[in-house]
């Protein structure tokens, strides 16, 4: 099976509310790049909602979607984090976290009721937030003499490569993210310039 060239994610934060038998479920969706970024967001949310009974969440990271985590935060096992992740996965999203903050309303919902509530709250927030398709990129370091700068930049611009870092002196060093779907074409063009050193970032 060939690897995908794109992934789907969200661009901005969104919040949605769902109520069931007195309990309020506030679902927050965040675009995230790292687990550290998520920890900061979760901490801020707990400070915003100190009286909430639960802060349940799920996140998925990485182009291959291999990195994920779920938390029921005191709810019965499997009744919160997994249903949240299920909604993220049903839309094939990555680089995303959803936290559902619950204020208990006095009536126990039971495990099926909780699964339904966390699933519904997550589905609601994912309906209102715009979903974006982004290219999967492969990092490379390019090194070349300054007089090659225009040629190299023309290739990078033509194939919508993203410049992450550059050092310009007599000898230039550029860190670039190349869309995987155009990788072979870009490398072919750069090699065609002869004196450009290309190194893949692992």
Question: Could you list some keywords that capture this structure?
Answer:
202 residues, alpha+beta, Ribosomal Protein S5, domain 2, Alpha-Beta Plaits, 2 domains, elongated
Concise account of the structure shown:
The chain is of the alpha+beta class and 202 residues long. It has helices at 35-48, 81-90, 110-128, 149-158, 183-192, and strands spanning 6-10, 14-20, 23-31, 54-61, 67-71, 96-103, 131-135, 137-145, 162-167, 171-179, 197-200.
Overall description:
This protein has 2 domains: 6-133, 2-Layer Sandwich (Ribosomal Protein S5, domain 2), CATH 3.30.230; 136-200, 2-Layer Sandwich (Alpha-Beta Plaits), CATH 3.30.70. It has 5 helices and 11 strands. It has helices spanning 35-48, 81-90, 110-128, 149-158, 183-192; strands at 6-10, 14-20, 23-31, 54-61, 67-71, 96-103, 131-135, 137-145, 162-167, 171-179, 197-200. The two termini are 22 Å apart.
CATH superfamily of the largest domain: Impact, N-terminal domain
Kindly provide the radius of gyration, computed on alpha-carbon positions and rounded to a whole number of angstroms: 22 Å
CATH class value of the largest domain? Alpha Beta
Number of helices: 5
- Quote the distance from N terminus to C terminus: 22 Å
Stretches where pLDDT falls below 50 for ≥5 residues?
none
- CATH architecture field of the largest domain: 2-Layer Sandwich
The number of domains is 2
Estimate the mean pLDDT confidence.
94
Strand order of the largest sheet: 2-3-6-4-5
**Beta-strand percent range:** 35-45%
- The shape is elongated
- The CATH topology annotation of the largest domain reads as Ribosomal Protein S5, domain 2
| SSE topology string | EEEHEEHEHEEHEEHE
For the biggest sheet, the summary is:
5 strands, antiparallel
Q: How many extended strands?
A: 11
User: Helicity range of the residues?
Assistant: 25-40%
The assigned structural class equals alpha+beta
